[in-house]
Amino acid sequence: MLTNLSSWLTTLGPYGLLLLSFLDSAMIPMPQGVDALLVAQAIAEPSSGYFGAGLATLGSLAGSLVLYSVARRGGRAVLERKASTAGVDKIRRQIEKFDALVLLPGTMIPLPPLPMKPFVMAAGVFEMKLLRFISVILFARIVRYFGEAYIAIRYREETTAFLKEHALTSVLLGVVLIVVFYGVHRWATRRMTAAD
Q1: Whether the model pTM is above 0.90
Q2: Dist. CA 101–CA 98, nearest whole Å
Q3: Alpha-carbon distance 41 to 39, whole Å?
Q4: Where are the alpha helices (DSSP H) in 99-156?
């Protein structure tokens, strides 16, 4: 079934990325599915690579907003279907400490051990401010998808080899961006608090 879905989405070109990223973020987890389709399409049609990255970003944001809304309405019980009570409490503490920044690792760095959905659901359950939620999802997805499109357009058929060879560097760059984003967030929060 997933092979047929993948084939069909490929025929839609960049619009397939919109649909796939929406489904991946809202309900049907497809680890690296969006990344693989984006890279394949950017290699095949470099002129539409950034357009595809933009559509993937919008689809992911829309899907994340659906999941956020469902979790916000459903409450903690919805989240506890995906994570243990202890896990939910741990996520709650992380949100209390880091706010929307807890969303960055799973949305920016394309590694399977970094889950995104429990944090998106927790953002809804624990009523994270919507503008912060949207800002972090957009920032992370823009960095991830436009970065992948750039690499695919630049390195074409050597993209996979480049990504394998520079995987650690990519992860470290993601971590640096997260730290910078966190620093800017803390600075802005302090300024707003001082102004009040």
Answers
A1: no
A2: 6
A3: 5
A4: 104-108, 117-125, 130-141, 147-155
